[in-house]
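The instructor's notes for this session suggest beginning with a concrete chain rather than abstract definitions. Hand out the sequence below and ask the class to guess, before any prediction is shown, which regions might be ordered.
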Amino acid sequence: PSGLPPHKKLPDGSASASERADMTDLAVDSLLLPDCASVSRAELKRPGPSYTVDTLEAIRSENPDAELFLLMGSDMLYDFPRWKLPRKVASLAKIAAFCRACGEDEEPLHRQKEFLERALAADIRLLHPKQIIDISSTRLRGLLPAGQGAEFLPCAVYGYILRCGLYGTRADLKRLE
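After discussion, reveal the predicted structure:
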């Protein structure tokens, strides 16, 4: 999780960086892949905005021979040229991008891939997940105050949100069904 996202202002009532890291821990734990995934708090420890290029440089310095992949949705791939030092990011990690919505037209994604490979010397892989959960984090945060959206989250993450009263949730945890 990023400490201070540079691309958007967090709305009032947003989870703190520490709370987002805790939820990420819970989500990764729910994958039941203890040797394949872990959560880094590196961006939480750095002052100022969290830029991917800084994180990748830190990971690369700690793991000089590792093959790094930066996973992103199609929306971020389209925005990638506006990131801080996109050519440097592309030199530090291969990019793996996937469609974010069911039925998304993949032709523009292929054109963007080809453009970025030429313009930035990027190594881009397009992923084709078998299942796409068609919801944005913004939409999900909008559903939570109305008691909706639990089906999009691991149970432990949803419970954490309710316990902490995040995103406008106001669950009475003393009277559970």
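Then share the key points. DSSP finds eight helices and three strands in the chain. The beta strands are 69-73, 94-98, 124-127.
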